[in-house]
Amino acid sequence: MRPLAWWRLLRSGGFRVSPSRWAMAVAITFAAPVNWLLAMIQHCIWGRRLATSSLHGPPVFIIGHWRSGTTLLHELLVKDERLSSPSTFQCFTPDHFLVSEWFFRTFCGWMLPDRRPMDNMVAGWDRPQEDEFALLVLGVPSPYRRIAFPNLPPVDMEYFDTESLDEPRRQLWEQAIDRFLKTVSWRTERPLVVKSPTHTGRIATLARIFPGAKFIHLTRNPLTLYPSTTRLWHSLDEVQALQKPTGEGLGDYVVECLRLMYQAFHRDRDLVPAENLIDIRYEDLIADPVGQIESIYGRLKLGDFAQVRGALESWAETQHREYKTNRHELPAEQEARIRKAWTDYFTRYGY
After folding, report:
1. pLDDT grade, residue 330 (50/70/90)?
2. To pair with 173 at 20 to 30 A between CA atoms, which of 91, 150, 179, 316?
3. Which pTM was predicted?
4. Are the beta carbons of 54 and 116 closer than 8 angstroms?
């Protein structure tokens, strides 16, 4: 994060950094000028070429609520070497990864845990990552700003529905994501698979920016989705927040996020050509990952599935057998609340 973006983030949180997180804040403060310098170097070297670059084909967007299987599908699709994705390092250093990636990939693997704390999936600089983090680091308004100050009221909730933004704010958002994805595509020289749950309500905007873009929408039983997402935010807040999180209001936040995202998604999904948007159930993906991805390739015309079948079958024979999802049980009162708040989701997707 550059100095100005870092300052704005701190100011938006009223500088309410918990004493136990002061060391983190100091480290980011010292890193900010370095990020700015590296960004200037990247701009000087590649700025002109990046300004005229284009994507290597229409991107594929994986969308759906958090914990609906988007990360798993993301990991599996990029096993196809004909495809690429924004990596963890690229998303956390979006304005200078062309000049700094080699160093961190070579010498700084120790800075990330081996596994993600919320679901025990493999982590690393090269792993595919949510591009929403790149937008956050670039200083673009994002609902993910709440991660820094989780004890304050949520911010930027209107960015779950970019079509509702006024023209100047929407244009700034569009320019940021377009520039970032084109830089990643220029680096990888392959079509991109992009995943962010926050994009679920943005399909109309994304389809306009990226003509021909394809969308894979995942759903999951809300009675599992709710506690799993609550656990996700607890885990992220404990590790990444600038405050010691209290967890107060977290359940309300999870409920409201799904409502906002799917209000926009259901309103706009018919604006995307039917052949470019498909629905996949998490339960079906877990039961038969290879078969489901073969179906995705056929329905979205992603290419010859035979070229990636072997890699997926190998994964299914080894890692998939060992992977276990977390088990969640909801108290009766919470279950009744979720069924009422998310009635439309239950009905539309047959849960």
Report:
1. confident
2. 150
3. 0.92
4. no
